Amino acid sequence: xxxxxxxxxxxxxxxxxxxxxxxxxxxxxxxxxxxxxxxxxxxxxxxxxxxxxxxxxxxxxxxxxxxxxxxxxxxxxxxxxxxxxxxx
Length: 88
What we know:
mainly beta
């Protein structure tokens, strides 16, 4: 049996979003379907923004440089190469 580990976030946790914005978790919200969302206050933007759990990482989980690990990019789909143009 596989053990599934989920990230646990709490208000006050420092996070980095999928687009590399630094912020602080303000609240953890559950909707009617039991899906978790995080309200995050981004350091250099006003307001609070909702993120799904797979769109953020704890600040200390991000590699300090690209040589320490892969670049911090979260993507649900692998990148697709642009199509080559053909001339007729």
